[in-house]
Amino acid sequence: MTTGGAGFVSNIGFTTRLVSGNICRRTAGGGKSVRSWAVERDAKQELGKPDVEFDIGDFGGLEEGWTLEEDLPEEGTVSEPKQRLPMVAVIGRPNVGKSMIVNRLSESYRGGSIVHDLVGTTRDRTYRRAFWADKEFFVVDTGGLIFEDDPNQVFLKEIRQQALIALEEAAAVIFVTDGQQGVNPLDEQIAVFLRKECKVPVYLAVNKCESDNGEFMAAEFWTLGMGQPFAVSGIHGTGTGDLMDEVCFNLPKVVDPVEDTAINVSIIGKPNVGKSTLLNRLVQSDRAIVSNIPGTTRDSVDEMVENDGKLYRLIDTAGIRRKRGIEYGTEFFMINRAFNAIRRSDVSLLLVDGTEDMSDQDGKIAERVVDEGRGCVIICNKWDAIEDKDNSSWKKMNDYVRESLPQLTWAPIVVASALTGQRTANVFKEVDNAVEQHRRRVSTAVLNEVLYEAVSWHKPPATKAGRQGKIYYCTQVSVRPPTIAMFVNDPSLFRENYRRYMEGQFRKALGFAGTPIRVVWRGKSRAPIL
Ligand SMILES: Nc1nc2c(ncn2[C@@H]2O[C@H](COP(=O)(O)OP(=O)(O)OP(=O)(O)O)[C@@H](O)[C@H]2O)c(=O)[nH]1
Ligand SMILES: Nc1nc2c(ncn2[C@@H]2O[C@H](COP(=O)(O)OP(=O)(O)OP(=O)(O)O)[C@@H](O)[C@H]2O)c(=O)[nH]1
């Protein structure tokens, strides 16, 4: 095998070779750096090729001591999110300075960059990680909230829904107003709304109060009936410390996730598919060792189950046990509840009813699992109720589910009956496999061999103007889900179909059953050092 295959940039200075146990990098001065022997061992084990000697293509500019995770561009979904941090929602009418406040609050964390940019939800809400004193949390920016429908503003309804979702999952709310404009009728509407809908503490921030009479300007906001107004300035940072002391005082402190080894599992699906029947089956068939553990999400209850020496946290079982129409009547809240459960889990058990046709709702939930980057096992339930089963029934069922849920081609399907317990014993095994894949790290050497093969078969595209897409190299930058950064000359040269092709090739070569994977395309601004 030679380096510099189709689409690889050849002779740019650093041909990284994996030869006889060393990855060596040629440098301009002829010196070479040796990377670890373990890389080759990993590569050989993963590829099942103990004796192979191979090149890994051209790695433009991988320098000694350069840790790839640190060097990644800021945008993107590459950091490993902490699952159970409390959320602080920032809410208010448009233009009061919410974004400025969010930046200010999150700036202690990596310069305020977005570190948890949830695909699919960032359009609507932005989560940023923040610390204050000994508390760690996410700050959630909601869109500007307006209650009157204005035909010119088509997204108002969506923004309101997003704000509702943010409130649902929040442990505290910061209500931002504009001190320079004084109390506005929209502020009053939001105050009424918060008093009615919001069950968590609300802190009133009066922004743009950087001037000497800031305290005086803020005092006017006592009339909103939301308690003490905090005079702050998002731009200057004044007053935000006092506000944060207050907000954080009541925030729950998060248990170090490293100590928490339980596997988080959510049971999701449309109404009536058998979620509570499956829950009871899983809890009964195993030893429910702890129960009624309130989660960070208001109102949720988790249950711990032990199976084969491992601990599983079944997430938001209150949401499953609570019957439809009692508290969360609308589809909106039901779906939202499922979305929250997905976010908190490592793996989701997506139940579908084998006796019924599948619908848009199944697709919506599946899509969210992918967007959140969670592992998934599809349970095709009520197998016992299928009449006139013959040899082909099982295959037909499988095919139908695959066809109906194209987002989840990678998720294993368990055809089961929660009612009779048939095949439900397989559920934990499938969860374990999915978790293993979800946390799997693949060495750079292996990834680049797959990349090399893929590029040899299908060269990166060139534009009509003759600009050639070039791939320098790729590396895994995070787990949960496995995320591969692809360093290229210009990401805009790589269209959706080529990106899909590349993702498909990684899957084909490396499996990753039970977990979504992400491939992020990065333009490499750093010029290779010759
Ligand atoms: N004087 C002053 N201006 C501020 C302050 N914070 C924000 N602004 C200004 O207020 C305007 C709106 O700020 P944003 O942070 O975009 O407001 P927002 O509430 O997020 O707006 P939407 O996204 O429309 O809801 C900008 O022009 C900011 O420069 C502040 O502390 N003092
Ligand atoms: N035949 C058959 N019926 C089942 C099975 N699992 C659940 N059911 C029945 O399906 C109905 C709904 O089951 P639930 O477990 O309440 O479903 P759910 O998904 O929790 O429903 P919601 O609370 O409405 O979301 C009940 O009548 C169950 O007895 C199964 O494996 N086979």
In one word, what is the shape?
Answer: globular
The class by helix and strand makeup works out as alpha/beta
N- to C-terminal separation? Answer: 24 Å
Query: Which CATH C-level class of the largest domain is it?
Result: Alpha Beta
Indicate the CATH architecture of the largest domain: 3-Layer(aba) Sandwich
Number of domains: 3
Structure ligands? guanosine-5'-triphosphate
Contiguous low-pLDDT stretches (5 residues minimum) are 1-83, 108-124, 286-298, 323-329, 526-530
CATH topology name of the largest domain, in short, is Rossmann fold
Q: What Rg is obtained from the alpha carbons, in whole angstroms? A: 26 Å
Strand line-up of the largest beta sheet:
12-13-14-11-15-16-17
Annotated CATH homologous superfamily of the largest domain:
P-loop containing nucleotide triphosphate hydrolases
User: What portion of the residues fall into strands of 2 or more residues?
Assistant: 15-25%
Number of helices: 15
Number of strands: 20
Major β-sheet annotation: 7 strands, mixed
Overall pLDDT: 73
Helix content: 25-40%
What does this structure look like?
With about 525 residues, the protein is α/β, with parallel strands linked by helices. The chain folds into three domains: about 140 residues, K homology (KH) domain (GMP Synthetase, Chain A, domain 3, 2-Layer Sandwich); about 160 residues, P-loop containing nucleotide triphosphate hydrolases (Rossmann fold, 3-Layer(aba) Sandwich); about 180 residues, Rossmann fold (3-Layer(aba) Sandwich). About 30% of the residues lie in helices and about 25% in strands. The chain has 15 helices and 20 strands. It has a seven-stranded mixed sheet with strand order 12-13-14-11-15-16-17, sandwiched between helices. A six-stranded mixed sheet has the order 6-7-5-8-9-10, sandwiched between helices. Helix 15 links the parallel strand 19 and strand 20. Helix 10 packs parallel to helix 11 and helix 14 packs across helix 15. The chain is globular. The N terminus and C terminus are likely disordered. The chain binds guanosine-5'-triphosphate (2 copies). One guanosine-5'-triphosphate (GTP) binds next to helix 3. One of its GO terms (molecular function) is GTP binding. Keywords: GTP-binding, Nucleotide-binding, Repeat, Ribosome biogenesis. This is GTPase Der.
